């Protein structure tokens, strides 16, 4: 199942659209990281785009290997599941044939996810709101209605927040 997936492939286009916001946030994170590193004056090295494209490919491959798995890729669990690809037969050869970009993309995605979750946990305003939501859940038998305005019912910020809250409440 590990194979070359081009940007013209229908599955690639469909997945890029489905995860548009996540992919663009990941790319922006990488561009900012490049600029902050001081290794380039323009802030663009081309790696951000490459890693973002490989993330799309890895999501496609993940969904082919695990078609019945529901994953929010922003959650810690989703990130761990995406990393399961490294353990599958054929991954090492695929990674090598692709110039090690798949591994690099997964590593950078881990950093991106960690920074996103850290922001949720460290931003004072968000921290206060998360605590308020946790209090509501504890006082209402864990019932809470999360509303969202996204067209996609499966992949949106309410799903990410639910996953984040579930992790926090289970601790």
Give the overall shape, derived from the CA principal axes: globular
Radius of gyration using CA atoms only: 18 Å
How many strand units? 0
Give the topology string: H per helix, E per strand.
HHHHHHHH
Question: In angstroms, what separates the terminal alpha carbons?
Answer: 37 Å
Largest sheet: none
- Average per-residue pLDDT, rounded, comes to 83
Count of individual helical segments: 8
Percent strand equals under 5%
Low confidence ranges: none
Share in helix: 55-70%
Structural class: mainly alpha
Structure, described:
- The chain is an all-alpha fold.
- The chain has helices at residues 10-18, 20-37, 47-65, 76-83, 91-97, 101-122, 124-139, 157-170.
- The protein has a domain at 10-122.
- It contains 8 helices and no strands.
- The termini are far apart.
Short description:
This protein is mostly helical. Helix content is 66%, strand content 0%.
Compile the SSE list and pairings.
Blueprint: H1 10-18, H2 20-37, H3 47-65, H4 76-83, H5 91-97, H6 101-122, H7 124-139, H8 157-170
Helix pairs in contact: 1-3, 2-3, 3-6, 4-6, 6-7
Provide tags for this entry.
171 residues; 8 helices
């Amino acid at each position: 199942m590990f194979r070359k997936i081009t940007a013209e492939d229908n599955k690639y286009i469909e997945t890029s659209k489905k995860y548009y916001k996540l992919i663009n946030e990941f790319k922006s994170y990488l561009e900012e990281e490049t600029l902050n590193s001081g290794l380039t004056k323009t802030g663009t090295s081309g790696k951000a785009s490459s890693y973002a494209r490989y993330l799309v490919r890895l999501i496609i491959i993940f969904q082919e290997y695990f078609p019945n798995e529901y994953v929010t890729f922003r959650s810690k669990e989703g990130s761990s599941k995406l990393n399961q690809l490294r353990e599958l037969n054929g991954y090492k050869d695929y990674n090598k044939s692709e110039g090690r970009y798949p591994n690099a993309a997964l590593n950078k995605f881990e950093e991106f996810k960690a920074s996103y979750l850290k922001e949720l946990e460290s931003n004072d305003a968000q921290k206060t709101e998360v605590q308020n939501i946790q209090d509501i859940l504890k006082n209402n038998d864990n019932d809470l209605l999360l509303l969202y305005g996204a067209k996609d019912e499966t992949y949106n910020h309410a799903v990410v927040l639910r996953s984040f809250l579930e992790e926090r409440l289970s601790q």
